[in-house]
């Protein structure tokens, strides 16, 4: 029986997670994309804590009436701003099993414009 789309994405995500992990100095920038929203978290895998997060459901981002791709770029800038406030400059990018294309790519570019290095 063939794998469903979500099962295939989860397998890819587990394959990625075998090689990358976040630390306090260089946390993991984890991305989750649904049909309507996009979420980003900075995670310290050694202590198992989320440092900060941003999503398209945040009030200032949701108030901006933009398309999904532009919203993803705003989320990237927001996570970069929150990261610099918490003292993080460099991250490890975890695309979450999604292709580096479209909204995932826009979020990454927005985070780079905001000052994160990866």
UniProtKB/TrEMBL annotation:
Alphabetized UniProt keyword annotations: Ribonucleoprotein, Ribosomal protein, RNA-binding, rRNA-binding
A GO cellular component entry from the record: cytosolic large ribosomal subunit
One Pfam family named in its UniProt record: Ribosomal_L18p
Keyword Ribonucleoprotein: yes
Superkingdom in the source lineage: Bacteria
GO MF term set: 5S rRNA binding; structural constituent of ribosome
Signal peptide: none
CDD domains: Ribosomal_L18_L5e (cd00432)
Quaternary structure and partners: Part of the 50S ribosomal subunit; part of the 5S rRNA/L5/L18/L25 subcomplex. Contacts the 5S and 23S rRNAs.
NCBIfam families, per the entry: L18_bact
Role noted for this protein: This is one of the proteins that bind and probably mediate the attachment of the 5S RNA into the large ribosomal subunit, where it forms part of the central protuberance.
Matches recorded under PANTHER family: 39S RIBOSOMAL PROTEIN L18, MITOCHONDRIAL (PTHR12899), LARGE RIBOSOMAL SUBUNIT PROTEIN UL18M (PTHR12899:SF3)
Family as reported in the entry's similarity comment: Belongs to the universal ribosomal protein uL18 family.
Protein name in the entry: Large ribosomal subunit protein uL18
Lineage: Bacteria, Pseudomonadati, Bacteroidota, Flavobacteriia, Flavobacteriales
């Amino acid at each position: 029986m063939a794998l469903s789309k979500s099962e295939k994405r989860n397998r890819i995500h587990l394959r990625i997670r075998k090689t990358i992990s976040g630390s306090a100095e260089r946390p993991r920038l984890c991305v989750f994309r649904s049909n309507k929203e996009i979420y980003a978290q900075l995670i310290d895998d050694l202590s198992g804590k989320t440092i900060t997060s941003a999503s398209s459901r945040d009030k200032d981002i949701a108030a901006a009436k933009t398309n999904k791709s532009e919203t993803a770029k705003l989320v990237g800038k927001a996570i970069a701003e929150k990261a610099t406030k918490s003292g993080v400059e460099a991250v490890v990018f975890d695309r979450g099993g999604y292709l580096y294309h479209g909204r995932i790519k826009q979020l990454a570019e927005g985070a780079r414009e905001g000052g994160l290095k990866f």
